[in-house]
Amino acid sequence: MVTITADGTSTAAKPALNIPRSSTSLTVKVIDVANISNVPASALFTPPVPGYTIAAPAPSFVFLLEHPSGQKVLFDLGIRKDWENLSPATVERFKKLGHKPSAEKNISEVLDEAGVGKQSINAVIWRRV
Q1: Per-residue DSSP letter, 88
Q2: Mind giving me the DSSP string for 38-58?
Q3: How far apart are the C-alpha atoms of 79 and 106, rounded to whole Å?
Q4: For residues 107 and 28, what is the distance between their CA atoms, to the nearest angstrom?
Q5: pTM for the full model?
Q6: Do 65 and 75 contact (CB within 8 A), yes or no?
Q7: DSSP E strands: which ranges in the chain?
Q8: Is residue 99 part of a domain?
Q9: Is the residue at 101 inside a domain?
């Protein structure tokens, strides 16, 4: 059982992460590549707030992780500009719910324009939608 104390702290046991010590750190860059608008507030939280039916446009981020060795990993949570060509199930879900994805550029274009060519990315982690 978890108890929240009067000062807002939790009595829950903290998990042992067992992360080894290191003197190396990564550079993390957040790229706001797109947004999704027209998301019903009821899809995000309950109970409903009277008068608040549509949430503000939500960003769709991509994270560029750069290691001092030069290795680059892209954690891609973004939406491509031709979202209509995503899987038919995803497109249908967006349209059914009234979501309006919007992206002016694909992440590859953003990287190229920033001088980080897509060919320099060593790995991409992405979510399947």
Answers
A1: H
A2: --BGGGT-SSPBTTB-BPPPE
A3: 8
A4: 15
A5: 0.72
A6: yes
A7: 27-37, 58-66, 72-76, 100-102, 123-126
A8: yes
A9: yes
User: Does 5 fall in a domain?
Assistant: no
Residue 7 lies in a domain: no
Range(s) of the domain holding residue 106: 32-126
Question: For 3-57, how does the pLDDT look when each residue is reduced to its tens digit (9 = 90+)?
Answer: 677 776 777 777 888 888 889 999 999 999 999 898 888 888 888 888 988 988 8
Residue 54 is encoded by which pair of tokens?
């549509």
Which structure tokens are listed for 64? Answer: 């560029």
> Structural domain tally of the chain?
1
Q: Determine the Cα–Cα distance for residues 14 and 96; give it in Å rounded to an integer.
A: 41
Distance, in Å, from the CA atom of 123 to the CA atom of 71, rounded to the nearest integer, reads: 9
Task: Establish how many alpha carbons lie within 13 A of residue 123's alpha carbon, considering only the half-sphere containing its beta carbon.
Answer: 8
